[in-house]
Amino acid sequence: MGCAQETLTDILSYLHREYQSPNYLEEYFLLQQEESDVDQKAEDDYKFHLNKDLDDKGCAPKCPAHLTFGLDFCEISSCEKCGITDDVSQIKREYCHPLYIEEVFSTIEILTKKGFKEISLPLIITHIIQGENKFHMSYSDIKFCSSCKDPVQVSERWLLELPNVYTFSLQYDFGQQRSTISRDVLNKVFDFIPPKINLRDFLRIGGSMGPTNKKDLTPSSPLEDWSQESYLESKESTYFILRGFITFYGLHYIAYFYSAKYDNWFQFNDESIKQIGNFEDVRKRCLAGKQRPTTLFYERSDVIMNVLSTGAFEEETEALGRVYFKEDEIKHNNFWNGKSGGGGLSGCSMFQRI
């Protein structure tokens, strides 16, 4: 069931490789045409090294794949006592942030036992990252601070640049991949999918402070309080809005995406496109058909995707405007829980023209 993520990654990887090497596809597929004349193992080895070399190369300016979906992560080790950053690990270039459903559920149970009343996705991810870091530090060579010489015990995840779209890949265990999961499990999955996230709540962005610089999460230290230090070092918004997701059922994938133009969610099922309504309508449809979400797409709130060029689309873009999402309105329109409209632009005050 990881095919959705694998397919997305493969497509984006091909775009990156072709951007780096304009003759990449011709060279790659030429080998396939000459399979009978080339040793299969030698061909596979060559393809592997060719792909790896191109994948490891950064792109400046960024290719379309990395500009839109690219996640450049690194883990940093810093001294909890004096706050000095000593070590930055190798950059990991990814397109998706994996979330393991069983790990998410177990984390929710842990946080509930600790007394947390409001358990959000950023809180869950922060707790997971802390657990991964502790495990990593326990089984790695101990490092010492260059200043105070104390053992370095804190590690955090750093997102170097903001993508236009932040993608989560929901990973189910092997048994769930091969069978139909219950509606109760699906309900729990939909419960932790938020309409809006702030990446600063669980990642360090650029030079800003992230939550994992602090002590362990406790109910008395709300997550939102942690992101205030160095909060606006960049003018770029770190808020992302859920714009669509892919579901899986019975070896088949169905996509759902929100249209700001029509203020409605739409279903994309092979050649069929249907207007569904608000997010609650989408959720009910997924529960009825036992369609499990596998890939979530969050668009950066200050990215204007409507303008494809400054010519042909300028007049249309000016007429439609660009939607922005106000915190107090986000759950009161068709995007989330509002009543389905008849198409056209929403009259909701949440939609603001630029």
UniProtKB/TrEMBL annotation:
InterPro entries noted in UniProt: Papain-like_cys_pep_sf, Peptidase_C19_UCH, USP
GO biological process: protein deubiquitination
GO molecular function, one term: cysteine-type deubiquitinase activity
Domain spans labelled USP: 1-301
Stated name of the protein: USP domain-containing protein
